[in-house]
Amino acid sequence: MTVYAQVALLRPSRHLDRLYTYKLPFSDLKEVSIGAKVRFNFNNRLEEGFIFSLDEERNFSGEIKPILEVLPEELWLTPELVEMIKWISEYYLCSITEALTLISYPEKIYQDVEVFCTVVDEKKLNEKIKKSKRLQNDLSVINLLKNKRGVVRTTATIKKLIEQGMLQISEKPLPNLPSIELSESQKQVYQQIKRDMLKNFVGLLHGITGSGKTEIYLKLAGDFLNRGKQVLFLLPEIGITTQMVDRVKKYFPDNTLVFHSRLSAREKFTVWRQVKKGSPVLVLGTRSAAFLPLQNLGLIILDEEHELSYKQEETPKYHVREVVYWRAKRLGIPLLLGTATPSMETYAAVISGLIKYYYLGKRYQNRPYPQVMIVDMFKEAKEGNTGIISRILQHKIYERLQKGEQVFLFLNRRGFAPVIMCRKCGYFYRCPDCDVSMTYHKEERNFQCHYCGKKIAFTSKCPACQELSLDLYGYGTQRVEEELKKLFPAKIFRVDYDTMRSKNSYDKILEAIKNKEADIIIGTQMLAKGFDFPDLTLVGVLNADQSLNLPDFRAGERSFNLLTQVVGRAGRGIVPGEVIIQTFNPENYIIQAVQKGNFQQYALKELSLRKQTGYPPFSRIFRLIIAGEDEQQVVEGANILVNLLKNASKFSSEIEIIGPAAAPFYKLKRNFRYHILLKTNKSSFAREVLKAGLREFKKCSLNYKLTLVLDLSPQIFL
Ligand SMILES: [Zn+2]
Ligand SMILES: [Zn+2]
Ligand SMILES: [Zn+2]
């Protein structure tokens, strides 16, 4: 009996994107399974790939070559991951090879990895250490002796001690139930979720900032680990801080694994190996951890479910929320989402009863919601203050500094001045490669494009009228820092991309703020989320309108989320917090809702606006971007594509095909950008239309230089 295998190539081939048929060189199916990594000849080259299906019948009539080698099992995918890749490729319309890039599969087996060790012969080990200076300096050996067990790397030393019978590699023990103290309201929510968490459970834990969601997650995770199950705990990139890792490890010291894209290949392999073995571990990870071969997964937690960074903006453009939905549903395990500001997608599902809802409305230790005051900046200007800091905010800063408390001023714009304009002819200085305004950076004395990074030396000469009449307008963080220095004799920290180039400086600055080395902190959104500074009592939002005015139907949602996070930074210690929001739109429903901390008020209004206009979550939008250096070609190509899509849809009323239109960022990195939107309630039909339209478009083989980007879960429409 011959068995045929369909394999997926790891390397993109110039041919069609499909699976290729090979035959197994043996008939014993025990030696392979779906997901096995194999070697074979492809176009006269030795290639590697994964087996995606096994079949006793040949479904290919040409010559079928044999598989040459089956690689060790530790390098295989699990059958579940194979299913997942197929789904990704169908759902986001990308190739299997592209989808496979999401998986951090190991290239090779590392011998020197982390294992869990227990001390077998303590006396002998103790004697040995006493005699050896080298062992006395080996921290992992000393820690093992102290704790009698622990996670260590299998270095030559450790291997030797194992051989000599002093240590032994063991299975990870089941962790004890963590002794986490819960407040009364936390306890209630925890018990409700625990009761409801049976099969096919999706829940939303909506807890206001500072309400203590993490304790509930960890308590639930403990229940699963204790039963020998695995837990996947996903956080946005910025959330995996040393603080957070320590917090989790405190409860599950032997059973916590951290996974993100910055790990080395060896470190990734260590995690890969343990989760694939089915060890009872909690994986604390960023979105790439959603693609680990977790063999014994019992619970998925997606914290900060509204976060934009859960969407990957490179192909395949997937949203991790959709991926964990799929995974939890397929495995029949519970999925718990959490946030202080639910996404409209999630909240609409709560309203329609698809997601269970749990609310934590009290801040930890009953700390009150900060007092929020709105300052009308039009009025401020009319009364003679055209600066960025209103008089009332100046006064409040002064008050707080007097008391020795900390102030955080939020401005989501780095650099010195964001607008460079000619006062004679009105010329507006834009990046020559992108259609976005350049920002003046004072310390480097240049104009910078924050999109492509282009730098042009400072000049006051207008490129249009040649007069020395370029002026700087508006405020970036650098300029605010300078103004503050004139106003207050205080220690001022600026936290933005320019001051935070290395990861190290980030941790350092957080530490320094905690230690009160700063009185006033001026920062961008890098500092808006998740941090606890107990002495921070006053928050000033310098320009609340900035994100509100973007041409994107989610601008309101993102503003509410961001402002809520910023407001949440105030008063996390004993002293109640206070917030000043400066705006030109004091009556705006988002600003009003942020002031009251009223999610419901904002969400119902936001949803009714979306319903009126038919935007998500009341429809699904697919976005196509056509870009190229020759605008004429881009426009022509886009028009051809729109017509092909309309034909493919047979002008069905189920799909609204919008465009082509110039994208709001109409030119980036010298490329002109046009987009086409497909708005639908029948997304599987729209996918078919998209596939058919693109197939026809390829057949036209236009001799144009165009790039085409597909986004089936677009979050940003710029
Ligand atoms: Zn700079
Ligand atoms: Zn640029
Ligand atoms: Zn000019």
Automatic annotation (TrEMBL):
TM spans (from-to): none
GO BP annotations listed: DNA recombination; DNA replication initiation; DNA replication, synthesis of primer; double-strand break repair
PROSITE patterns: HELICASE_ATP_BIND_1, HELICASE_CTER
Signal peptide residue numbers: none
Domain called Helicase ATP-binding: residue spans: 194-360
Binding site for Zn(2+) 2: C431, C434, C449, C452
SMART domains attached to this UniProt entry: DEXDc, HELICc
Cofactor: how bound: Binds 2 zinc ions per subunit.
MF GO annotations: 3'-5' DNA helicase activity; ATP binding; ATP hydrolysis activity; DNA binding; zinc ion binding
Cofactor: Zn(2+)
Catalytic reaction list: ATP + H2O = ADP + phosphate + H(+); Couples ATP hydrolysis with the unwinding of duplex DNA by translocating in the 3'-5' direction
The Helicase C-terminal domain, residue ranges: 433-610
Keywords for this protein: ATP-binding, DNA replication, DNA-binding, Helicase, Hydrolase, Isomerase, Metal-binding, Nucleotide-binding, Primosome, Zinc
Enzyme class: isomerase
Positions with a binding annotation for Zn(2+) 1: C422, C425, C462, C465
Family annotation (InterPro entries): DEAD/DEAH_box_helicase_dom (IPR011545), Helicase_ATP-bd (IPR014001), Helicase_C-like (IPR001650), P-loop_NTPase (IPR027417), PriA (IPR005259), PriA_3primeBD (IPR041222), PriA_3primeBD_sf (IPR042115), PriA_C (IPR041236)
Stored Pfam families: DEAD, Helicase_C, PriA_3primeBD, PriA_C, Zn_ribbon_PriA
Function: Initiates the restart of stalled replication forks, which reloads the replicative helicase on sites other than the origin of replication. Recognizes and binds to abandoned replication forks and remodels them to uncover a helicase loading site. Promotes assembly of the primosome at these replication forks.
Subunit structure: Component of the replication restart primosome.
NCBIfam families from the UniProt entry: priA
PANTHER family reported for this sequence: PRIMOSOMAL PROTEIN N (PTHR30580)
Name of the protein this chain belongs to: Replication restart protein PriA
Gene: priA
